[in-house]
Amino acid sequence: MSLRGTPPHPARRRALAAPLAWATLPAAWAAAPAQQSLPPAVVAATGELRRLGSGTMRWFGLHVYDAALWVRGTRWVAEEPFALDIVYARDIAGRALAESSLTEIRRVGQEDPARSARWLETLQKLFPDVSRGDRLIGAQPRPGVASFWLGDRPLGSVEDPGLTRAFFAIWLDPKTREPQLRQRLLGPA
Question: How many CB atoms lie under 10 A from the CB of residue 15?
Answer without folding.
Answer: 11
